Amino acid sequence: MYCVLRTRSSQCFLAIKSMCIVLLLLSITSGKVSAGLNYGEALTKSLLYFEAQRSGKLPSDQRVQWRGDSATGDGSDVHIDLSGGYYDAGDNMKFGFPLAFTTTMLAWGSVEMTSQLHAHNEHQNVLVALKWATDYLIKAHPEPNVLYGQVGDGKLDHACWMRPEDMNTSHPRPSYRIDAQHPGADLAAETAAALAAASLAFAPSDAAYANTLISHARDLFEFGKSHPGVYHDSITNAAGFYPSSGHEDELLWAAAWLHRATGDQMYLDYLTHASNSGGMRFAFSWDDKFVGAQVLAAKFVFEGKVKNEGKMAEYKRMAEQFICNCAQKGNSNVKKTPGGLLWFLPWENLQYTATASFVLSSYSKYLEAAQASVQCPNGVLQASDLLGLARAQVDYVLGSNPKSMSYMVGFGTNYPNRPHHRGASIVSIKKDPKLKACSEGWNPWYNTPEPNPNVLVGAIVGGPDMNDVYQDERSDYQHNEPDTVIVAPFVGVFAALA
User: What is the pLDDT of residue 3?
Assistant: First the structure.
């Protein structure tokens, strides 16, 4: 619309007014305001979810009141205190491999989005959630070459439907470990990455604790580097739940975090001399950390800490290929559902959407700081494009989708009422302290069509299938089970958008 301002022409004024209204409407139908979504609320609720997943003795300031103390005797079978940490998903297991990845992603979000977290008064809550994990991981590493990587028998646990508070403490749950004779470089290195990343989060407020984390991270990296192999060959009980595809990615990931945390050249040398950069990856997950390592290496390039050449240029190029594919501008684009959700794999797809959205949000910051862009095979991406792509995914998750449904429990008015989650689906121990034994939870709690009695605020379920189809059924653990590895990356994304 074009108008020449000569005098106080009423026609001209009305034309400009009309143009302003059109522009306002356009702004409302795009981005943050479009769906009327409150990213700050999503951030707050995502952190409440971690309080609902706590294992061990709960603190006096516990905000999720329907939970109680649980598994306080973990580790007693091996005479070590292994209480604490987080239950993995809708079960009562503590699987160290995904727990360590959850910790790394929480720490990364805290470090990358510090100012945004402070602005929304959630920085301290992120550190609290992070410390609940790192305190446990420190206890799980009692010797340089010993790391406890699981508490509980996965098969026995999944045969029961019971509240975590009701687990039989007279018979300690089994504790499983890796050591020099029973290695697991992937588990050791992922835990090293988690503690190194967390040290960056705690350094400004608690230098002594940060130093403790770095000390453990260094030992665990050396342990993993010196004892190759996948952890589920040593902790065979984990093989049916969280099997690992290899250990090279975790060692690169850990080296990148240790270099970022310490500045030590030895970790950078490990990155630059690695034989396998990962190449172009399809997804970023608890099992495949190559994209994470590539993104961190690209950050070193953007900051001028290393030259954009050789192996470092290769990492950066691979990271940007992943980003281009997410943005539908690459040579092997990520599939999208008809409703616009990035769709990677059938099982709990939102875990991959979460990590991809985190990469987009973080890389947007790197591009903006460096005044750079991403040159894709089919177009150019600016920092704002990446953040817009992340926003579109978050909007889908929070309700802007064909079902007009939030996949975050407790967000909005239409969200999952029957997530596959033992603690949430059985009456709170605060309301009914009578023991609900192993098999007593199946009826009436698991098999009822009624909503869960406890609202698992902030949980994000696995999400819809590739056609945007989703059924809120407790038995559908493929799509309706929340998991810490889904929520942890979204914490940083919500902060970036809030």
Answer: 33
